[in-house]
Design goal:
binds zinc ion, 6-stranded mixed sheet, globular, Metallo-beta-lactamase, Chain A, 14 strands
């Protein structure tokens, strides 16, 4: 078995590269993830990837920096592309109705306490809408549903970072392709995908299940392969426990919206909500929502709707 690593440039400043892999098991070859857009194909060709050898493109999750190059690869080489069904449906439903998605996001974020002056800007030129346009060239209708295994590869579902995040496990090996489920240097972003899912709850469960696999080397969606997966998982779980304690202290005896909780949370590099741009604010509120929803599910906080805004208070 052999794995080649390609650091494909992407237009996300905080990350700069996505890690794309060619996995050769001896009998089959796979491309793991595909970069952000069509330029990934050129980059991979120029760096010596022989696409005539690739049996399948397998995608770890729906985010554009992982799936964006796959359509051009499929079009040029006719290679089948596999993605988990939960992620596939999510992207297709958004793609089919971007204005509708923006409208429902606006309603949801208002309920989460995001001020009207922010939600009112959520039209066609909003950064979130522009972000969604990145998906326009990716045609997920032609992607195949991910089976539980393919030839000499097992698929391991790890919902959390996205609803359909998937790890790839070559049979009889001690390596795991983690996508953005586990990264070495960054805590994977956990947010919300609709008004009911508990993504953090799903994520923590996925982390515990991944730990049980006891794999040795992780091949992540960003950065270089690394060992010490168990320690890394423990550190990520600890990070979320700290976040939960922090939020519970922030709420104290009060009733706060998710937006006001996010404003009081500590953000890296001393940033404040006031100093963040719209997309960063969106990430911050998303993180607060994911934690509050988990805490509510666990019975640590309760919420009620007052004047259209959901207010959270400590339950214990
Ligand atoms: Zn990513």
């Amino acid at each position: 078995m052999n794995v080649d690593v390609y650091y494909v440039p992407i237009r996300i400043r905080a990350l700069r590269f996505a890690s794309v892999y060619v996995l050769k098991t001896g009998r089959h070859s796979y491309l793991v993830d595909s970069g952000m857009d069509n330029s990934a194909l050129t980059f991979l060709e120029q760096n010596g990837v022989d696409f005539s050898e690739i049996d399948a493109v397998i995608l770890t999750h729906m985010h554009i920096d992982h799936i964006g190059g796959s359509k051009s690869i499929q079009d040029k080489y006719g290679i089948p592309v596999f993605i988990d069904e939960r992620d596939r449906e999510k992207v297709i439903s958004i793609q089919n109705d971007i204005p509708g998605f923006m409208r429902s996001s606006k309603i949801f974020l208002s309920e989460m306490g995001v001020p009207a002056e922010t939600t009112e800007t959520m039209g066609d030129n909003h950064p979130l809408a522009t972000e969604l346009k990145n998906y326009e060239h990716v045609d997920l209708e032609n992607f195949s549903k991910m089976p539980n295994s393919l030839n000499d590869l097992d698929f391991f579902h790890v919902p959390g970072h996205s609803p359909g995040s998937t790890c790839f496990l070559p049979k009889n090996s001690d390596i795991i392709f983690t996508g953005d489920h586990i990264l070495e240097k960054i805590t994977p972003n956990i947010s919300y995908y609709d008004s009911s899912e508990d993504m953090l709850g799903e994520y923590l469960e996925s982390l515990r299940m991944t730990k049980v696999l006891q794999k040795n080397t992780a091949f992540p969606g960003h950065g270089s392969p690394f060992t010490g997966i168990e320690e890394r998982i423990k550190a990520i779980i600890k990070h979320h426990e700290n976040r939960i304690n922090e939020i519970s202290e922030i709420i104290g005896p009060d009733q706060l919206s998710a937006y006001n909780v996010a404003k009081l949370m500590k953000w890296s590099k001393g940033r404040t909500m006031e100093s963040m741009n719209i997309m960063e604010q969106n990430f911050a509120v998303g993180e607060a929502i994911a934690h509050l929803r988990y805490m509510e599910n666990q019975g640590f906080v309760k919420s009620n709707l007052r004047n259209g805004i959901r207010l959270y208070s400590n339950a214990i």
